UniProtKB/TrEMBL annotation:
Protein known as: HAD family phosphatase
Organism: Tardiphaga alba
Pfam families: Hydrolase (PF00702)
Alphabetized InterPro entries for the sequence: HAD-like_sf (IPR036412), HAD-SF_hydro_IA (IPR006439), HAD_sf (IPR023214), PGP-like_dom2 (IPR023198)
Amino acid sequence: MTSPSLPIDALLFDLGRVILDIDFDRVAQAWAYHAGQTPQALLARFTRGDIYMQHERGQISDDAFFAHLRETLAIELTPAQFLEGWNAIFVGEMPGIGELLPRAAARWPLYAFSNTNPAHVAHFSIAHANLLGHFREVFLSSSIGMRKPDAESFDHVVAKIGVPANRILFFDDSEENVTAARARGLQAVHVTTPHVVADTLASFGL
C-alpha cells in the first residue's frame, strides 16, 4: 500500500471489494444449479471479452448480454434465471465500511466510480441504498459510457468532481485501475484487504 503524499479534498471509491463484497463463484453456482452443470465448467467458458465490456459501457442491454451468455456458456437459462445468478455476486457490505463512510463523509465529499452494468445497478441501488446514500455522486461505467482503466474515464470523473486530480484519493481493488488513476494524476491506493481503507484514512486522523 502506498501512502498518500498530498492533502486531499475528495475521496473516490470503487464499489466491488471496496464498498460492496462480491463473489463471482456465487454467480457460477447459481447458473450451474439451473443448468444442471458444474460451476467449474461454466467458469472455464466465461470470458470478460468485448461483449462484456460493451455491457459495462451501457452499449448493449441486459437481455442482449444474457443471450450472449446463453450461446457462449451453452446453457438454456431463462432471462430471469440469468438475472438471478448475475445478481448473486453481491454478498453484502465490506467489513467495517458501513461505520467508516459516515465518519469520512463528515470530513470529505465522497464519490464512487464503478465498472458495472444496468442489471447490477438496478440491484445494488435498492439493496444498498442506505450505504450508497453517503456518496455525493456515483459514477457508473454503464451510465457514462466509459470504464476503468481507460484514461478518458478518469478525466471525466475528475472533471465532474471539480477538484484537481492530485487532491482526490482513489481506492480500488484492481492494481491496473490504481496504476491508471495515478497516471491521470490521482492519488490512489490498492485495496488488498478489508482494512486498507480504514488504515489509510487513519493516517489522516479519521
